[in-house]
Amino acid sequence: MRLGLALGYWGRGPSPDHVPLAQEAERLGYDSVWTAESWGSDAFTPLTWIAARTSRIKLGTAVAQMAARSPTTTAMHALTLDHLSGGRMFLGLGLSGPQVVEGWYGRPFPKSPLTASREYVDVVRQVLRREAPVELDGRFHPVPYGGPDGTGVGKALKSITHPLRPDLPVLLGAEGPKNIAQTVRIADGWLPLYWSPMRADVYEASLADAPEGFLVAPMARAKVCDDVAEGLLPVKAMLGFYIGGMGHAKRNFHADLMARMGYEEEARRIQALFLDGRREEAVLAVPDAFADEISLVGPRERIAERLELWRKGPVTDLLLLAPDRHTLRVLAELNS
């Protein structure tokens, strides 16, 4: 199992620790570093900044949002950064949810998310393979565009730039069982938002047909500390926000996932509290047990024991979210 560093997206502004952490992760032998985006900073620019200040560590987006860019634009970003970094790029993509897609990007959330994802990946793959001009008679991503409000003179084009790697890895962030099963068929890897090594059976059917070499790369918050309860507070805050606020009351993929993992009553309570404006209560309502099983928090010996659970399942890459330098070093030592 390889280790990666997950930096996430910016909050109020850029963190001065991101580049030094990425450099330290590279020095410690981490395999990859990942950036994200929501409705503020983008995923590709910080990754390019890190690429210029490192030499070996792989570079991934976890995730770049599909609604933010056309698939050809995303492929341009990926092939450009792959060239500049010497072939270190992983392209992680995600649909996001209706609130963000419609509220931030001003686009309709696709009525058939699986079809939209499949078309998006198809176009990206065509750009990267550069075997012929890109063409797709798609429902959501037609290329060239031939809609009634177009000019009718769109021309199928092939990338001017020759991609460094036609097989640049594409990973998808997916949560629903059908979406995960499709990810196995069309992508090179899967980026679970949260994963419990104690409940791998939740994903067993969806991953049944995963080919050899398929990447399973979940994120887990990591913190070496003496007080487990205190160390879990940031995990609970993250869960409270995603389960309560990242979605609509009737359509929240994160809450649905928590329910499938055995915490349905708790997920609905967190949602109700958050949407009622009682955010602190929503965070406190997150069960310690759930926060604990999807993270690596506590003294070194405790983390060492729990790390063995992650190694036993299908996880190929464990992406550590928000660790400090001490935690980075301890996890590197334990995983060596």
TrEMBL record:
<dbReference type="InterPro" id="IPR019951">
    <property type="entry name" value="F420_OxRdatse_Rv3520c_pred"/>
</dbReference>
<dbReference type="Pfam" id="PF00296">
    <property type="entry name" value="Bac_luciferase"/>
</dbReference>
<keyword id="KW-0560">Oxidoreductase</keyword>
<dbReference type="InterPro" id="IPR036661">
    <property type="entry name" value="Luciferase-like_sf"/>
</dbReference>
<dbReference type="InterPro" id="IPR050564">
    <property type="entry name" value="F420-G6PD/mer"/>
</dbReference>
<dbReference type="InterPro" id="IPR011251">
    <property type="entry name" value="Luciferase-like_dom"/>
</dbReference>
<protein>
    <submittedName>
        <fullName>LLM class F420-dependent oxidoreductase</fullName>
    </submittedName>
</protein>
<feature type="domain" description="Luciferase-like">
    <location>
        <begin position="17"/>
        <end position="315"/>
    </location>
</feature>
